[in-house]
């Protein structure tokens, strides 16, 4: 089987590049494909060295997910140990204990291996069928940026409505309650959820790019890697429990961030969206006492103006 990483690649060319170790494969890519950028060289070396695209994609996604998840959670775990940072903790009296964090870690790891490993391993054959490509060179950065931005908007729609549904009676009781075990969340909580929730909310992350490629006919797997990494960072940061003066929501006012999602965990109601604030704003589902007060004021104003209309 010849890897599809080179668009016009053939067996002879792949054999020329392939070596017994990843390092020497990479060296030969450097020699014969100097026009590629560093990321593209590593990408091509990985697929050439593995010589099995299904295994290469499956392993790449699994390792990317594990590495990025724990790489992003680790700084939050360290910050929780340092009292200096408490001034920016959204619920400063609720510092997660190491025991709690360890319990969460065990559960998340189990879910990664049991629930998420299966779709990851069957991903490549589906990619090939629907037009997700692995070839080098990658698309240009503007295309990647536009596609990733679109996925953020689409995932947010999916997340808002499904998450809101998960707060209705039986859905909450049997599925979503698990994620709400922590009223003061921390980074690792991002993927602490019932398997049904992981799969269905996860559709927003994986399914939206699939719908996109079904419509447009082309998407690069590298774009998907960038998107999944950024989406992981967004979810972990939203659960971090910290709102810094340099947090992203201070520069992009419609970005949700930890401040938005922490209120959801604290009050169990409102702020259902993942990345942006606009759905909760327009649907009047913002969480917290301030939002409640504003809502009540608005209702009062509406009632008074109705009364006035009647009198006239
Ligand atoms: Zn919830
Ligand atoms: Zn949450």
From TrEMBL:
- Supply the InterPro entries for this chain: Fatty_acid_hydroxylase, Sterol_Desaturase_Related
Chief site of localization? membrane
User: What Pfam families does its record include?
Assistant: FA_hydroxylase
What UniProt keywords are attached to this protein's entry? Answer: Membrane, Transmembrane, Transmembrane helix
Kindly list the biological process annotations in GO that this record carries. lipid biosynthetic process
Query: Locate the Fatty acid hydroxylase domain: which residues?
Result: 150-285
Where does the UniProt annotation locate this protein? Membrane
Q: Where are the transmembrane segments?
A: 141-161, 210-230
Q: Which GO terms describe its molecular function?
A: iron ion binding; oxidoreductase activity
Q: Does the keyword Mitochondrion apply?
A: no
**A single cellular component GO annotation:** membrane
PANTHER family to which the protein is assigned, alphabetical: STEROL DESATURASE (PTHR11863)
The name under which this protein is listed is Fatty acid hydroxylase domain-containing protein
Q: What is the lineage of its organism?
A: Eukaryota, Fungi, Dikarya, Ascomycota, Saccharomycotina
